[in-house]
Specification:
By secondary structure, the chain is an alpha+beta fold. The chain has nine helices and seven strands; from the N terminus they run αααααβαββαββααββ. α4 packs antiparallel against α5 and α7 runs antiparallel to α9. The structure holds adenosine-5'-diphosphate.
Length: 311
């Protein structure tokens, strides 16, 4: 199946935003064709000509062809690597530049809502609250983009501090309570006392848990039930979150941890999302020496898990 996909050159070109002759599949076919021609020609020549000069000449010609093709392949990959680097730098600069005006908008709206609220009408307060919510959402997006560039450029720095996963789960659940209530979703979690600590970046691991809790709520329709568990096994702390939500279609499950992935069944009704959360979460867990995985059945629910090594 993968080989059929790899040879669908038009699809590859569309996905990569390049022309068909630049796709890895096309270059792979060219190299294959060159190798087959070379082998057949050498076989033919060695059968029909005894002269070693002709063989040496034909082999030199073949080496030159392979060098030319190889050189153009390397050139295309170099070009792709450069474009990729430029893209990461652009995202990083743009995100940094966006952070300052966004912080200013948030400070100003907070000031209006706290100190100057008395002089405002109800409609004005509502409008300012909406600006405040939207700017908070944009700040999250900008921070996610910055994290993605750091991950892609292998510059994501993680602190090493003792972290209690049970306490982080409690905090993340408390912060998500109002969202869960508004969506009629129940969260069940029994905190574990004396759970050994893992070594990691407290803030980033909390981001991972917040993302998983947020997703379970977002992608669970009415009367949802979420079950969170933490435990220690074989020198690892395991975290799992199970929901009875919309699940992920089987044919899209291999892309769940890809950047910007959003499954078709979720995009339809949940417009608020970027497809960056799980990519960032998995990178954080991997970089902390752990693993992240999931099981999901469309229309039945999902269970997302991660494990992190104990101190
Ligand atoms: P976002 O939620 O912002 O779209 P994520 O990276 O957190 O981005 O998730 C990527 C996609 O994976 C989601 O858009 C959704 O399609 C799917 N997904 C993640 N968690 C769940 C879940 N608990 N149930 C169903 N689908 C999920």
């Amino acid at each position: 199946m993968k080989i059929v996909n790899d040879l669908n050159l038009k699809k590859q070109a569309e996905e990569l935003g390049i022309s068909v002759w630049q796709t890895p599949g096309f270059l792979f076919l060219i190299l294959g064709a060159v190798a087959i021609t070379v082998m057949s020609a050498t076989f033919y020549l060695s059968q029909n000509y005894d002269s070693p000069e002709i063989l040496v000449l034909s082999e030199s010609a073949v080496s030159i062809v392979i060098l030319i093709v190889g050189n153009s392949v390397i050139g295309i990959f170099e070009q792709m690597a450069k474009v990729n680097k430029l893209k990461s730098e652009f995202v990083s600069v743009a995100s940094h530049q966006l952070r300052t005006p966004l912080s200013a908008i948030r400070w100003e709206t907070e000031l209006l809502l706290s100190k100057l609220k008395k002089g405002l009408s109800d409609k004005q307060v509502k409008n300012i609250e909406s600006i405040s919510l939207l700017s908070a959402r944009m700040t999250r997006l900008v921070n996610d983009l910055l994290d993605v560039t750091r991950i892609d450029q292998k510059r994501l720095l993680l602190k090493k501090e003792p972290v209690n996963i049970s306490i982080l789960a409690e905090e993340a659940i408390a912060e998500a309570t109002s969202l869960a209530k508004s969506r009629n979703v129940e969260i069940a979690f029994t905190p574990k006392k004396n759970l050994p600590k893992v070594i990691g970046d407290r803030e980033k691991i909390k981001m991972v848990i917040e993302n998983l809790v947020g997703n379970s709520i977002k992608y669970t329709t009415n009367r949802g039930k979420i079950e969170i568990k933490v435990c220690k096994k074989d020198n690892y702390i395991f975290f799992s979150i199970k929901d009875n939500g919309v699940g992920i279609p089987e044919e899209q499950q291999n892309r769940v941890f890809d950047k910007f992935f959003r499954s078709d069944n979720c995009v339809k009704y949940q417009t608020d999302g970027t497809g960056l959360g799980l990519y960032i979460a998995k990178s954080i867990v991997d970089q902390s020496g752990g693993e992240m995985w999931f099981n999901s059945v469309e229309n039945l629910g999902s269970i997302f898990n991660f494990k992190l090594p104990v101190k």
